Amino acid sequence: MIYDRILVRYGELSIKGKNRKYFKNALHRIIRRKCRSLENITYEITRDRFYIILNGTAPELVTEQLDKVFGLQSYSLCARCENDIDAMKALALEIIKEMPQVPTTFKVETKRAQKQFPMTSGEISRGVGAHLLINTEHLSVDVHHPDVTVFVEVRREGTFIMAEHIKGLGGFPVGISGKGLLMISGGIDSPVAGYLMQKRGVEIEAIHFASPPYTSVRSKQKVLDLMEKNAHYAPVDEINVHVVPFTELQTAIYENIPNSYTMTVMRRMMYRIAEGIAKKREILVLANGESLGQVASQTLASMYAINAVTNMPIIRPVATLDKNEIIEIAKHIDTYDISIRPYEDCCTVFVPEHPATNPSLEKCIEFEQNFDFESLVQKCIDNTEIITVHAGEIIELEDNTACPLNDLF
């Protein structure tokens, strides 16, 4: 195996000034955690470089984990040699010959951080490039659009040669921005919102509202499976899912609230419950998958009426994306096929025939006086079940069948 290490490059962390060291340390911890099962690898940290030393470990076992780590701008498989031009030439040639797809054009770029090395960057590039031309067939130089760029970095501790920059996820290490509570229904949008929250460094817990027997256990299973996908990006590979027993409160809403306002009031109750659980968990922000104008509860007027019940910040990562953009991300993170399973949640099962798209906040407050919702909200908070979902482990729930809704309408 040619490559003996992986060079990790930081993304936005480089612009964070005095917080940069904190962010880098968080990223190092997450990488070590993700790679904890790879016993042979070690780490080498310099002022502006982070190397994963393979020690015989297959590189793909490490890159598989790096592809789940936010905060990486890019990474490269690389090999080290001594600061000697002949050693550089030999190693570069070996890397080119071992590439899975043989290139036809190339260029060499050199960065000479070790200024005491007797050759300039241009001289090194020309020397390595000439050696590659002489010792390969059908290989030519293209400085504008090469098939491959051979990168040579001459540093104090040695010369590092690589032939590919693999794009990372970018963003911030998960956890450095605090914790958020993701409201997840089981649709396409909310797991994408969770993924995007993690990309901005927010560690997430999830909250799901279950209304048995009107919603089936398959709907709950769907949510757990979605969060298993999000858990792959979590710093400790797990996410807590808060499952709220919502049946009694939801039934009271449909018995006491005019039909056109049931969806708006139901969402207001969900926000009250989410805020209560967030405070118990010392979580500072709520998040959801609302996309502006997509359904009746996601118009600006509806958002205004619903938001009025809480002072907690609410982040909507997919609010300005269209559906195709959201679906593209969902497919990328492997949640799309789960989200389209035909098992409805309490929002879709109980949707009124003609929901208010321009609800009045004053009417919401007036209608809510028809019943004692505060005690029911507190009961939901007190009886919420917490399920911890681990990456790579599917929780199998016992199946049942959702009951008809005739008794409610």
SS-based class:
alpha/beta
Biggest β-sheet, characterized?
9 strands, mixed
Give the N-terminus to C-terminus distance in angstroms.
Answer: 68 Å
Helix and strand sequence: EHEEHEHEHEEEEEHEHEHHEHEHHHHHE
Give the C-alpha Rg.
27 Å
Count of beta strands: 15
pLDDT averaged over residues = 90
Total helical elements = 14
Q: What are the low-pLDDT stretches, counting only 5+ consecutive residues below 50?
A: 402-409
Percentage of residues in helical conformation: 25-40%
Beta-strand proportion: 15-25%
Global geometry: elongated
Name the features.
409 residues; alpha/beta; 9-stranded mixed sheet; 6-stranded mixed sheet; 15 strands; elongated; disordered C terminus
Describe the structure.
With 409 residues, the protein is of the alpha/beta class. Helix content is 36%, strand content 20%. It has helices at residues 20-34, 59-66, 85-97, 121-134, 189-199, 217-231, 247-256, 262-280, 300-307, 323-332, 336-339, 346-349, 361-368, 373-382; strands spanning 5-10, 42-45, 50-53, 72-81, 105-112, 140-141, 148-155, 158-162, 166-167, 179-183, 203-210, 238-245, 285-287, 314-315, 385-390. The strands form two sheets. Strands 1, 2, 3, 4, 5, 6, 7, 8 and 9 form a nine-stranded mixed sheet that branches. α4 (121-134) links the parallel β5 and β6. α7 (247-256) runs antiparallel to α8 (262-280) and α8 (262-280) crosses α14. The longest helix is centred in the middle third of the chain and has 19 residues, at 262-280. Residues 402-409 have low confidence and may be disordered.
